[in-house]
Amino acid sequence: MSSDDLKKRVAEAALEYVQDVDVLGIGTGSTVGYFIAALSRIKHRLDGVVSSSEATTHQLQACKIPVLDLNAVGPLPLYVDGADEITRHLQMIKGGGGALTREKIIAAASEQFICIADQSKLVDVLGTSPLPVEVIPMARSHVGRELLRRGGQPVLRENFITDNGNLILDVYNLHILEPVKMEAEFNNIAGVVTVGLFALRPADVLLLGMVDGGIETIRS
To answer: Choosing from 103, 134, 146, 183, which is the catalytic residue?
Structure first.
């Protein structure tokens, strides 16, 4: 079964969690794209969706699903998003698509966070993928030096500006044994908007598409 097939299957499985929800938050990425396509079939039951990125907003609008402002709807019952990497403790690296700040805000504002991913995203220790860090442009060099001092190898994401007008440093060579501690420490570097570690607010449920075609459900 191909990676796309796995993503489609796990996106379809996530619809079960939307049965009694009229407003939800949605993340960004290829797996989320399949979820939006599935969600369009039941859009008549929804009041709307809070989007984590301009890219996701465009997909929702193409499916004629109303896009809502988080400030207007308050706490959300549900947030659905993917991950670059995730452990069985449901801690994640996210931000490969550059939407980590808005994703983190929506996750924090949601009662339940469902992560949808294929089996290749499951890891024992975070850090195989680079860790995205969104930074204020004037702080790029300062933040880079601080990340180097902490053992990372920051690389500026070329020709990329976030939806918030900021830069992304992708940090390589990290072996993240204490995700909660690292998230707090990196977030406290002056000039960092946020870091793509989702450990302080991990997922509540992981729906994992398996290569045999099944769906494994892991709960916190």
So the answer is: 103
